[in-house]
Amino acid sequence: MKQVPIISAAEAAALVKAGDTIMGGGFGMTGNPVHLLNALAETGTRDLTFIGNNVGEPGLGGGRLLRNGQLKKAIGSFFTSNPEAVQAAQSGALAVQLIPQGSLAEAIRAGGAGIGGFYTPTAAGTDIAADAEVKLIDGKPYVFVPALRANVAFVRAWIADTAGNLVYRMTEQNFNRAMATAADLVIAEAEQIVPVGELDPDRIHTPGCYVDYLVQAHVTLDDLGSSASVKGGARKVSESRMNMARRAFAELRRGDVVNLGIGIPTLVADLIRPEDGIIMHTENGMLGVGPAPEEGGALEYPVNAGKIPVTALPGSSYFDSADSFAMIRGGHIDVAIMGGLEVDEQANLANWAVPGQPLLGVGGAMDLAVGAKRLIITMQHTNPDGSAKIVPACTLPLTAHGVVDMVITDLAVFTFDDGRLTLTELMPGATLDDVRAKTAARFAERLNQ
After folding, report:
1. Which residues contact 184 (CB under 8 A, 6 or more apart)?
2. What is the dotted CATH code of the domain comprising 240-445?
3. I need a labelling partner for 93 at 20 to 30 A (CA). Which of 133, 246, 333, 334 fits?
4. What is the DSSP annotation of 169-231?
5. Is 283 a catalytic residue?
């Protein structure tokens, strides 16, 4: 059995050359090879292209590389969590390539599997795929996404053995598993390194043939940034927002596999009890998500897609991001509930970008919009300036075409009956005149009252 060299983080960082493309695992700050990235930030190595879901929080990991001016380009799905990344992209100091989160995971997996790329319905007809090759498959547009590989991959494991076999912890598989296969040089930092033979072969996630070097690195609360802990106590939420969450919850059925977006949809999670039999999915790699713990953080618990520590219900399972989005694209998510910026008469959704605003990320929304069996949008009925969000045709960049099944706002509930936008309910305190006055789109009325 081969023995993988164990080196320091500084020695690992010295293996990266100017102009290299590097991959950095992790989701938010969990499973993030922060010690390797911080060591790279101590070098003068520049002109790097960084591939990762995001570039990390300011002052940590990939965020330090950005702050130092070491990155020339970033390829990922969600950079909005780092304001410095947004500013650098808007100023032209950083070239950015946005890829939907599921396509990013699959592109990395394809790179590691020796596949040149793949076709996906995600992002078809949107600005994200404006320059992509499109092919009709069974009459449906599919976008070609090239595979991604790197010169060097930094990954984070919980346990490694001296043969390079890796075991990840809870939702820390995320992008690490695929990235460990998709680079010329793979360096894994691990919480523990044990002798060969101490790991059960059934537990190993990444076989040692992929790994070139190991670095022992102990994670601390400071390394976890915003995922370090949660505080108990109820959130202060407006009654109108809770009404939307309750109405969305009423659409869920026992046995449903459900994915919740950020914002109002996260409130639905507070309404779900274990006895309801609803199975919560989070795109960073967990099925069977339970409520947030009273206290503690990502050292003790898995995290959800909002980077919030959560509990695991009996029967829960963990997997990596590529498997998670295979579930989504493969039609294994019964209901997705997400927020919206605009919905139009053709059931089109816009929810990821506002021109001129400091937003830089699409995350998993495009994958979920086309992959979930049913899509429910929860949002305020109007913008802060009073303009309508339910419109004749979306003017904001599209997330997906013709995918919305239901819209729940603070004023009303709409469905698409036989393809036509239809008002079916008024929310508490709302009047029909309110809805008519504040809805720009044409709609039919079939009030169940």
Report:
1. 149, 150, 151, 152
2. 3.40.1080.10
3. 133
4. -GGGGTTHHHHTTSEEEEEEEEEEEE-TTSS-GGG-SB-GGG--EEEE----HHHHGGGS-EE
5. yes
pTM score of the predicted model = 0.94
Q: Give pLDDT tens digits along the chain (449 positions).
A: 789 999 999 999 999 999 999 999 999 778 999 999 999 999 989 999 999 998 877 777 888 999 999 999 999 998 877 888 888 988 999 999 999 999 999 999 999 999 999 999 999 999 999 999 999 999 999 999 999 999 999 999 999 999 999 999 999 999 999 999 999 999 999 999 999 999 999 999 999 999 999 999 998 877 776 666 666 555 678 999 999 999 999 999 999 999 999 888 988 988 888 889 999 999 999 999 988 888 888 889 998 888 888 899 999 999 999 999 999 999 999 999 999 999 999 999 999 988 777 677 899 999 999 999 999 999 999 999 999 999 999 999 999 999 999 999 999 999 999 999 999 999 999 999 999 999 999 999 998 75
Domain assignments of the chain as residue spans, ordered by start: 9-219, 240-445
Catalytic residue, chosen from 172, 189, 283, 342, is: 283
- Which pair of structure tokens corresponds to residue 119? 């076709």
Q: Which residue has the tokens 């399972």?
A: 317
